[in-house]
Design a protein that fits this description.
It contains four helices and no strands. The protein is an all-alpha fold. The relative contact order is 0.18.
């Protein structure tokens, strides 16, 4: 089960949604996909300096898609730059980013 939640309502996306996004038809990688999904959502939240996804359909959609983009990078064996998410993911979530001063 994916552990990262949108406030208190449930997972940001399901394992099945992640597998569709990754074009994975088999169950062999389910555990790996769940782990990478949690890491992807955590990376997006960390980028924004927040603990939960903001409420609302638009923020939830932005965080979901950004997390799926990061998941694609991780599942494909790519590495995330420690300081930056992929540009397309940043574009979606930067409006929700809390900057520390």
């Amino acid at each position: 089960m994916l552990n990262v939640v949108v406030t208190a309502t449930g997972p940001l996306f399901t394992l099945d949604e992640a597998k569709v996004h990754l074009n994975v038809l088999h169950a062999d990688d389910d555990t790996n996909i769940e782990v990478l999904s949690n890491a992807a959502v955590a990376a997006v939240l960390q980028h924004c300096n927040i603990a939960t996804v903001p409420e609302g359909d638009i923020p939830e959609a932005a965080f979901k898609v950004a997390s799926l983009i990061v998941l694609s990078v991780l599942y494909g064996g790519g590495q995330l730059d420690a300081a930056r998410l992929p540009a397309s993911a940043r574009m979606l979530v930067d409006p929700y980013r809390w900057l520390r001063v």
